[in-house]
Design a protein that fits this description.
5-stranded parallel β-sheet, Rossmann fold, alpha/beta, 10 helices
Length: 206
């Protein structure tokens, strides 16, 4: 097993659960919130600060500044002058690459597909689902009313979309940004996992 699996996902689509089951099946490491803990340790930021900015856009984001800084290397003075949200993005970006360099794994969210765009052994997935199923899953997971659940998934998706579109050169949820987009409502969680397992095994055996 040599493939790194990245998962973008709609809120309530089961993306995290699918990722966990894939990691368990292939006996590889899984990173979702776990990535934040590692990024905190390696960057020196407190974990609470990283969680505060996790997959949330900033109104003051200067795309060219950050990407130029990342691409050409940043010196101490440039880094010090950056807003905290930029620094946290770079810390997560670096952590994603370090994790990928260690071998096959599953990484959920955090623009991992974009961070690893130069890597050849990456399968980029996007998991979505019918609104009804998403609302029901979030209602059950967080003991919410139907209205509260709908508001949560709408807000979360807007944040993830804005974050991804700001920090990458691609569009969140658009088919051309990924290798596979799968509706988990069609096959269910286990059926979706089975489909992805087959895809990974076919890729590995090419």
């Amino acid at each position: 097993m040599n493939t790194i699996i990245t998962i973008g996902r709609q809120a309530g689509s089961g993306g995290r659960e699918i990722g966990e089951k894939l990691a368990e099946y292939f006996d590889i490491k899984f990173f979702d919130k776990e990535l934040l803990t590692r990024a905190a340790k390696e960057s020196g930021f407190c974990e609470e600060m990283i969680q505060l900015h996790d997959e949330k856009p900033t109104n003051s984001f200067l795309y060219n500044l950050v990407m130029d800084t990342y691409s050409f290397g940043y010196n101490a003075s440039t880094f010090v002058d950056m807003p905290i949200s930029h620094k946290i993005f770079l810390a997560q970006f670096d952590t994603v690459k370090k994790i990928a360099d260690e071998g096959a794994c599953v990484i959920v969210g955090r623009c991992a597909d974009y961070a690893l765009s130069d890597y050849k052994n990456v399968l980029k997935l996007f998991i979505y689902a019918d609104e009804k199923d998403r609302v029901e899953r979030v209602m059950k997971a967080y003991n919410m009313t139907e209205k509260e659940s709908l508001e949560r998934i709408t807000k979360t998706d807007k944040q993830r979309q804005s974050y991804y579109n700001y920090y990458s050169s691609k569009k969140w949820g658009k088919a051309e940004s990924y290798d596979l987009c799968i509706n988990s409502s069609l096959l269910g969680i286990d059926g979706t996992v089975k489909l992805i397992v087959q895809a990974v095994e076919d890729i590995e055996n090419r």
